[in-house]
Amino acid sequence: MEDLIVWEDRYSVGINLIDDQHKQLIQMTNDLYLACFKDSGEAKQHFINVIHNALDYIRIHFSTEEQIMEKIEYPGLAAHKKEHEKFVHQILVNAKDFEEGSHKAPAVLAKYLKDWIVSHIAVEDKQYYFFIKSHNKQV
Ligand SMILES: [Fe+2]
Question: Measured in angstroms, how far is the CA atom of residue 136 from the centroid of ligand 1?
């Protein structure tokens, strides 16, 4: 089965640490997507574990990004933080739906993750990349 998301060079934000974290997030989303297609009690537990691991990782990643944005005095920090918070909230809602028995939840969640990750990385995260470049900031 093909991966749901494939890393592309155009996603780079010019900071190796962040690019590596984004690659890891993409990997986790692909694992989550694969886990959607297995249907058993064990698979369900696996899916829940994958979601929680992904959430832990996402929180670490967001705080890394927010620290960098603070350091460079990025003017879009508050709005960007809000986007991060909304995203974590949405994942928690989806994970809860799944744990409460919604069978549609895994595929919906994987799709949501894909759309969010691709658009967030390629659009919102790219904004601080442009800011760093145009203001000659050191990260
Ligand atoms: Fe971000």
Answer: 20
Q: Tell me, yes or no, whether 51 lies in a domain.
A: yes
Are 121 and 77 within 8 A, CB to CB? no
Q: How many angstroms separate the CA atoms of 99 and 77, rounded?
A: 33
Q: Of how many residues is the chain composed?
A: 139
Question: How far is the centre of ligand 1, averaged over its atoms, from the C-alpha of 112 (Å)?
Answer: 15
Give the tens place of pLDDT for each residue, 36-85: 777 777 778 888 888 888 899 999 999 999 999 999 999 999 999 999 99
Give kind and range of the element (H or E) at residue 112.
helix 105-119
What is the model's pTM? 0.88
Distance between Cα 127 and ligand 1 center (Å): 10
Å from CA of 101 to ligand 1 middle: 30
How many domains does the chain divide into?
1
- Does any domain span residue 7? no
Ligand 1: distance of its center to the CA of 41 in Å? Answer: 34
The domain that holds 68 is classified in CATH as 1.20.120.50
